[in-house]
């Protein structure tokens, strides 16, 4: 999609999901899809996602690549109290700052454990570790805060906590012009519509038209998604797509032929 | 996890999932988790996953980074017939070879459309495009083949097709020593076990012990996963973990205290 003249309104993001369990398949990630939905609604363009292991070098390298390139980077995972939770150290290393027990986080957590009449052990204190100078991301679910340093937002991996944290973060971000979209069901397979659709895309360069094949075991159909930042631009392209489908209906002289990609 | 002396048996992989719809949230990826499961069973270490848009530069850059670093790279998405399916072109560019209509793929597809009494249109012919010199990955679901060039395996995005293609690919790969794992349920939160678990990890360096918090709305517990390539090494570490939990039980004098990270 070519950029509209208001290119300065494009706000981009990347996500870095951290965790051996994501790469082994033991945990099926839910945070990526959730974040993608929210960012789309917020007018922020998620451009890249990476999943890496709980390994310092891997996290540092990926983080430094992503934070230089996109407006915002969101990370999930590795901020719990156990020995395999190394995200705070890795992020500190990426920024070249000390990783410290943040005093306010220590207070928050100490107060919580006191209320629950439990010991604030050395292990639990690990959850207060963050890069020196980082600010908290509140955690209304389980208290231990995430943190933000420059354009990097570091959050938990547990989906319930990740979602609560991102809900707190989103209102603080600058957002770009929102991508509007319209989904149009098409009873024809991609093979039937490809050339016509390509012509529509060319004629409407400020849109991005996606084509997603569906197969119900017998018949191919397609979901067409037209995206644009401008409502009039979107409408024009959507009408062209609807007209294309109507033309195909007339040409085939039946409303829902069995077609195949 | 430190490498065992048979370091040459470590076979690594990366996955590159391609598709605007994955980044917008419209499609929730299912292929990453599926591939992760299969590779773990096969003894291949998935080390990194990236999700990028249907944009040539993004695909080329990610592919070139990943294929230089890991034994195998698996891609999903973008090999259909429509204008937004640009993976074949991007992979060709990454390798610096022409993107051609592969003759054997053309034959396969032509025969299929002939059987179905449908026209083998220019759009449908796009599905035969691949880098010059690539070999086919068979597609028993919908005929249009994926392809492999050097260590890069390019497959469909539609989960049904991706799964069928990877089933055909896996038996052809070299596999490393398989990672064995054992999951141990732990009724205590991460905060209770962190120091002890860290000590066990240190004492068993040829294992990787993961700790995954669970929260049922009231109580925290933890799933502990011990991984190793050697069964005896795994057994020793697992026994240490079981003993740790038993010690905690005795210390707290009740089998399932309410604990919190």
TrEMBL record, chains A, B:
Pfam families (UniProt xref): FLAD1_M, MoCF_biosynth
MoaB/Mog domain: residues covered: 14-176
PANTHER family documented for this protein: NICOTINAMIDE-NUCLEOTIDE AMIDOHYDROLASE PNCC, NMN AMIDOHYDROLASE-LIKE PROTEIN YFAY
Protein name (Swiss-Prot/TrEMBL): Molybdenum cofactor synthesis domain-containing protein
């Amino acid at each position: 999609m070519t950029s509209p003249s208001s290119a300065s309104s494009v706000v981009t993001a990347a996500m870095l999901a951290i965790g051996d369990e994501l790469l082994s398949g033991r945990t099926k990630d839910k945070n990526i899809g959730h974040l993608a939905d929210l960012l789309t609604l917020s007018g922020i363009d998620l451009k890249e996602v990476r999943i890496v292991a709980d390994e310092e070098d891997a996290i540092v390298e990926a983080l430094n690549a992503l934070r230089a390139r996109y407006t915002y980077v969101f990370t999930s995972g590795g901020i719990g109290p156990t020995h395999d939770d190394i995200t705070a150290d890795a992020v500190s290393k990426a920024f070249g700052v000390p990783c410290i027990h943040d005093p306010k986080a220590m207070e928050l957590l100490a107060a919580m454990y006191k209320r629950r009449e439990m010991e604030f052990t050395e292990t639990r204190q690990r959850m207060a570790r963050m890069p020196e100078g980082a600010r908290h991301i509140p955690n209304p679910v389980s208290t231990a805060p995430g943190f933000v340093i420059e354009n990097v937002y570091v959050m938990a991996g547990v989906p319930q906590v990740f979602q609560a944290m991102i809900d707190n973060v989103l209102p603080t971000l600058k957002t770009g012009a929102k991508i509007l979209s319209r989904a149009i069901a098409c009873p024809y397979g991609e093979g039937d519509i490809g050339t016509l659709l390509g012509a529509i895309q060319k004629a409407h360069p400020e849109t991005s038209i996606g084509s997603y094949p569906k197969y119900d075991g017998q018949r191919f159909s397609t979901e067409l998604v037209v995206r644009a930042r401008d409502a009039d631009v979107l409408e024009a392209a959507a009408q062209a797509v609807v007209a294309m489908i109507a033309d195909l209906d007339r040409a085939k002289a039946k409303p829902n032929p069995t077609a195949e990609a």
